[in-house]
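Chapter review: from sequence to fold.
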Amino acid sequence: MTDKTTAAVVLAAGLGTRMKSARPKVLHEVAGRPMVCHVLDALRTAAVDRTVVVIGPEMGAVAAAVAPAATALQAERLGTAHAVLAARDALTAFGGDILVLFGDTPLLTAETIAAMRRRIEGPDRPAVVVLGFQPRDPAAYGRVILAADGSLAAIVEYKDATEAERRVPLCNSGVMALRGDVAWALLDAVGNANAKGEYYLTDVVAIARRRGLGSALVEVSDEGEVMGVNARAELAVAEAIMQDRLRSRAMANGATLIDPASVHLSWDTTIGRDVTIGPHVFFGRGVRIGDDVDIRAYCHIEGATVEPGAIVGPFARLRPGARIGRDVHIGNFVEIKEALVETGAKVNHLTYVGDARVGAGANVGAGTITCNYDGFAKHRTDIGAGAFIGSNAALVAPVTIGDGAVVGAGSVITGDVPADALVITRAPVKEVAGWAAKNRARKGAGAAKRKPAATAPRSDTSAPAGASGRKKAG
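The token string follows.
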């Protein structure tokens, strides 16, 4: 991409108070990945040589998330220029150009980072390159001010801008590149005489201009790419944009999404060619789907591998550690966890398989459970190739079902079953001839006895109580 060296300083010390969260803002996830890690991935893809992440006090969780990238501490939060200066010691021996990015802009692409590098490495070698954009609603963004000759003159923060400057449509994204030989001198010259009393990184544009150093602009057309996430609503917008990108990539690579808007993907979801994904399918982190797989509606898949030709769902759940082999059928209301289902096996209905192996060609009947947990530890179930497990069986681990063995429906299996054996643990059938009819008659007679006697209605000519009922003599 380039033969010049470039370092990146990623600003991630912000408290993110508008997120209303105990978690550092940059660790909130988009597509199952912390926002700052999306930024680092874009930098890696753009082949940036070194990266330093600036964090605030008590942000050990951020340092752990960005490792092995180096971190620098901004002990006091005194503005963006002050934050970049916090990385100086980590870059003392580095003489290349410096990119400045923000850990809360997860949608920034490697292509835009590469464009920034190309511009600052151009023949005119500008001292500063600013990434600008024209949003539909400029709101409170800082404005990019151009001189009469079209050159970059200054960036003015919204709170410090005049009414005329606020009408300027070109806004500052915050992303910036600084030429290595002047970067630290420009940053040292930044003051804090502004409405917020902070050291603004954006002031380096005007400082460079006063010193006769050129500045340049790179404009990005997609405002979503440079959106910063400061609140939960903005996090949801970023998620929606990222999901659209991931779905488009999956379809461009040969997958069919029947209802794309209802499919949720993670940043690392890998989907092969000729895969069909039904509506309302959720992919968590760590999923790999092979070619020619059919994922039917309403499945939840996380930390799982599905080999070519398999059918999953509808309404199936593959939990972490699930490994679904070639041409396997996983049906409705089936849950697989930390288990290998080998080639051609079928687990089609209402079944839980956890901490287990289901051998090639085996059939696991409806309602079967591998009882893997005894209240203290997990144990394994091994079902051999070609075995047949009848419906509503409970396999109490640790237990092995041999190749070709048959487990009768309704059995509770607590010991190993040899290959090709039949095992049934149902109680013997007891038949009492005529019992049902006798029971109905008995219950019917009892009900009749309990029923209260009917009371005859009294007519209008009935004698009053106590009367003889004889006609009075005339």
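Two observations follow directly from the output. The longest strand covers residues 171-178. The domain at 232-423 is CATH 2.160.10.10 (UDP N-Acetylglucosamine Acyltransferase; domain 1).
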